[in-house]
Amino acid sequence: MLKKGKSAALFEIGGGFEHWAERRLRYLMLAPAVVILLALTIFPSLYMFYAAVHRISPNPELPWQFVGTANFARLFSDGQFHVALRNTAVFTIIAVSLEFALGLGLALLLDKYIRRLTFLKTVLMIPMMLPPIAVAITWKLIYEPQFGVLNEIMYRLGLPTQAWAGDVDLAMLSIIVADVWQWTPFIFLLMLAGLASLPVEPYEAAELDGASSWRQFWDLTIPFLKPVIAIALLLRVMDALRLFDLVFILTGGGPADRTKVLSLYIYQVAYRFADPGYAAAISLFVLFVTLILSTWFMKRMRLVE
Amino acid sequence: MATTLRTRSRSRETLLRLSAYATILLALVLTLFPVYWIAANSFKFDIDIFAVPPEWVPRNPTLKHYDQAFIERPFLRYALNSFLVAIGTTAIAVTFGTMAGYALARFSYPWQWRKHVSFWILSTRMMPPIVSIIPLYLAFNYFDMLNTKSALIIAYTAFNLPFATWMMKSYFQDLPVELEEAAIVDGDTRWGAFLHVALPLARPGLAATAIFCLIISWNEFLLSLVITLTEQSQTLPIGIAGRVTQYTTYWGEISAAGFMACIPIVIFAFIVQKHLVRGLSLGAVKG
């Protein structure tokens, strides 16, 4: 805090003697980024409000027709939208919980043994860096009902083979497994970094007091890890809410809409059903939910200062 | 009594160590098998891809699918598009993100602007891309920019710029401010102190940020799917998805192209391994 104050004071002193640009430097350096981001986020949001109160024909020659809140009213009666909402919620809750449990568990187990094995850690990180499309086709190949590896394993184990991504009951699970494969390393890596920064003294004190390792975990490790857990969960939840690529390739939203998530539904409404006005209304709903969720998260976890 | 206790705890330690190594091994196999599998299939003839039971190691390796994808079909073009778009958006995001990040790390503003602007920039990063595709599509359509790489560069900047700003802010906050103060005392301007002192010191962070922007852009799918329809503008992920049709999936081709799409990413991942944690948490967690 002191450091920043000092540099600001110096800046003020120098400022009086320099020309205009130098005096305005703090605004000039920030301005381009702010202007670009305003143009790329605020403008689209406002434009979306405008689009959402119109019926927009796929034919660009036809004028937009003002329909008031009709598109928003449709949100309440559109069964497909409710299905997409539920699928997104189910996916987000199950996938992120699994990733969190697995990632934290692995980090706790391996913390002592893997800390210095940078190369090994990097190898384990590979899945989350890969293009989601490559991940999707890889799992498509593994799930393939006729010649896929998974059914071969089922067969060898004497279990019934399945259609996996093509099966009504297993499709969502198939998507979740692919996502867990890709993103568990993310939680694992962040938790490992968090564990590495834990102070030693409280644990020594707890040891002297005869606290069990279970107690130490709940009373020391979890509270210390809280900021890291917060950022990890925030980023994962925001990512899970925007899931698109995996579903687009693995199931296309089927079978029987079991994997139709919000992003895919908006895409379909806008392009396949050629109804950008209604798609804008759904988008605004999604924007609203993510903004509330992420703002609440960031404020609560004091991620900003 | 004491000895038995020690032996017991030592054998418990050995057991724990063994189970940890076994877990690491299992995690490695589960992590690497899918990547291996796509690579293996890209080198098989179609008939061997469909073999039951699966051919674990290609018996009859071939480069046929690479030839098909990159020579006969325009995957080289797609890869080039991906590359150009990634370079363009990274240049913009890193340039302006570095300046903004520095400003937010060093300067003070009236009315807590620093906090509010930081927060707002972070929240733009949280915006799902699906939310902006409709206005972006309509705007690019209006300006006759659909199917251009410039449109993709602009669209990708929407998520790369907040990322670069936050990353660079976190790197600059780690630098001691005294060096810049010394430069100013020696007669450098405030801008000069940034350019000649802070920027060179932040070079590793700058490189890591740029690589992350390249990776995120190279991997992006949804925006490119909506904005581009022509071979001249489509990126690699769209090219791959285009070979998964309702009727057939060109397994060999997409395996070859998919595997090639992964290679630069894996190389980059190793280059930035020290910065992975920070990059993946937008600068919030220092690895």
From TrEMBL, chain A:
The keyword Electron transport does not apply. InterPro entries: MetI-like, MetI-like_sf. It is a multi-pass membrane protein. It comes from the Bacteria. Gene3D superfamilies: MetI-like. Keywords: Cell membrane, Membrane, Sugar transport, Transmembrane, Transmembrane helix, Transport. Residues 85-297 form the ABC transmembrane type-1 domain. The chain crosses the membrane at residues 27-50, 89-110, 122-142, 180-200, 220-238, 278-298. It is found in: Cell membrane. Its main location: membrane. Belongs to the binding-protein-dependent transport system permease family. This is Multiple sugar transport system permease protein. The lineage of its organism: Bacteria, Pseudomonadati, Pseudomonadota, Alphaproteobacteria, Hyphomicrobiales.
From TrEMBL, chain B:
Residues 79-272 form the ABC transmembrane type-1 domain. It is a multi-pass membrane protein. It holds the Pfam family BPD_transp_1. It comes from the Bacteria. Belongs to the binding-protein-dependent transport system permease family. InterPro entries: BP-dep_ABC_trans_perm (IPR050901), MetI-like (IPR000515), MetI-like_sf (IPR035906). This is Multiple sugar transport system permease protein. It is found in: Cell membrane. It comes from Sinorhizobium kostiense. Keywords: Cell membrane, Membrane, Sugar transport, Transmembrane, Transmembrane helix, Transport. The chain crosses the membrane at residues 20-39, 83-105, 117-138, 206-230, 250-272.
